[in-house]
Specification:
single chain; mainly alpha; 6 helices; 0% strand; elongated
């Protein structure tokens, strides 16, 4: 059995492939960030909308991860109210939806708040022993990059800077 194979009975660490996919998931954020602040204004507007849409999709995915932790709990994790955790799992999707229906400018702020809220909530779950080892390190790293990229777009578009 490969060392990074998923074994729900003994989640010693986040599998390497999950880390690879998490990092690869940043590629659209990076590409769309540069597109949203590019020289071509029409393309920049389209890329900004796509950036918000991609962020909303990823935020919804993070809520689904919480469902996974309820349906396949970490062995030895303390008992929790599954309804509360499942309810929390839909919150990121709702935040992502709000980001989609407001202006893209406001959507950036909604997404930043959503990613930060979700990660802080997961950190609390981690503190209580509900998440596998290593998960929060990956989440903080990915969330940090995403929030920085969204903030860069928001700032540069606020000051009217475009680059080519």
């Amino acid at each position: 059995m490969a060392s990074d194979a998923y074994n729900p009975a003994v989640p010693a660490r986040v599998p390497a492939f999950a880390v690879l996919l998490g990092v690869a998931g940043l590629i659209p954020f990076v590409v769309l960030t540069f597109g949203a602040i590019g020289v071509n204004v029409a393309l920049g507007e389209r890329m900004l909308r796509w950036l918000v849409a991609y962020g909303a999709v990823i935020l919804a995915f993070l809520g689904g991860v919480q469902w996974g932790f309820v349906l396949q709990p970490v062995p030895g994790a303390p008992a929790v109210n599954p309804r509360a955790r499942l309810g929390f799992g839909v919150t990121p999707s709702l935040i992502g939806f709000v980001a989609l229906v407001v202006t893209p400018w406001i959507g950036l702020g909604v997404l930043m708040a959503g990613f930060i809220f979700t990660t802080i909530s997961e950190a609390e779950a981690n503190r209580r022993g509900l998440l596998p080892p290593g998960y929060m390190l990956l989440r903080w790293a990915l969330t940090g990059v995403v929030v920085i990229l969204l903030a860069v777009v928001m700032f540069l578009r606020a000051v009217g800077a475009h680059f080519g």
